[in-house]
Design brief:
alpha/beta, seven-stranded mixed beta sheet, four-stranded mixed beta sheet, 13 strands, 25% strand
């Protein structure tokens, strides 16, 4: 399928990326302008990697004008330049992290992108298909339409707040998808993954139920070398998973507005 973008939307995006207009209220004005001219998505690049940015998704809108999670991506890519390394993207959404790391990582990279929403899975695959051979050849992308949690059970993916804030709950809401949950270790076993060099997790307050049981059972050799974990929904955590990671031997290298960047101390 061809995904082409007209000149005017690209001009608006270029203006936002090259000036202060890509921030704050000015960014909101440019987004409204894109909606007014009937733009549903924009095909452009981010740091040289092609991507389809859909305007119905807050995550994609925030990244459209650049400067989005640059520090986080650089932190993960620092280890993903090495040949044969493994990246796990939990809460992959439309594949922003997956595509950027797939397109810029070393030869032999394996990426496991985990996302329960079928619409986001479709977008993730479409974005991966945009990469040319120089960016994707010799690399392995595994896509799992799964919801991760502490146990195997049935739950709901709550979409009331939109695609960017979808989260796992045990109660049905106005807009929900029924999903099957499974532990992270089970998914790694299914995909024969025995090492993790970098991991990103953004699951809207469910991070503790994904990583906690994993830390309980995982051998030390399987612990990720670097982790980017969103903490803006930590009020939804049942236990402080960030503190648990620090106790496990991670060092907090940096905190951005939304994420903690952790590295193994050894």
């Amino acid at each position: 399928m061809q995904h082409e973008t007209r000149f005017l939307p690209l001009l608006i995006i270029g203006l936002g990326r090259a000036s202060f207009l890509g921030r704050g209220k000015a960014r909101s004005f440019l987004l409204k302008l894109l909606n007014r001219i009937g733009t549903n998505y924009v095909r452009t690049t981010y740091r040289g990697v092609p991507f389809l940015f859909h305007l119905d998704n807050p995550t994609e809108r925030r990244a459209l004008f650049g400067r989005y999670d640059d520090q986080e991506l650089n932190f993960l890519l620092d280890v993903m330049q090495e040949p044969g390394n493994v990246f796990i993207d939990i809460g992959a959404n439309s594949g922003f992290y997956t595509n950027n790391i797939l397109g810029r990582s070393g030869v032999g990279t394996t990426i496991l992108a985990v996302e329960p929403n079928p619409i986001m899975i479709e977008r993730l695959r479409a974005n991966a298909a945009l990469l040319d051979a120089n960016m994707s050849e010799g690399k392995n992308l595994l896509v799992a339409q799964k919801a991760l949690s502490a146990t195997r059970t049935q739950a709901f993916l709550n979409l009331d707040a939109g695609f960017g804030s979808a989260h796992i709950t045990d109660q049905q809401a106005q807009k929900t998808l029924r999903v099957e949950t499974m532990p992270l270790q089970d998914l790694l076993d299914e995909n024969q993954i025995s090492r993790i060099d970098a991991l990103k997790i953004d699951v809207e307050g469910h991070e503790d139920r994904v990583l906690g049981p994993f830390l309980d059972k995982a051998p030390e050799k399987l612990l990720p070398r670097r982790i980017v974990i969103e903490y803006t929904s930590k009020n939804q955590w049942r236990s402080d998973i960030l503190e648990r990671l620090l106790q496990t031997g991670y060092i907090c290298v940096k905190k951005t507005r939304g994420n903690a960047l952790l590295a193994r101390s050894s």
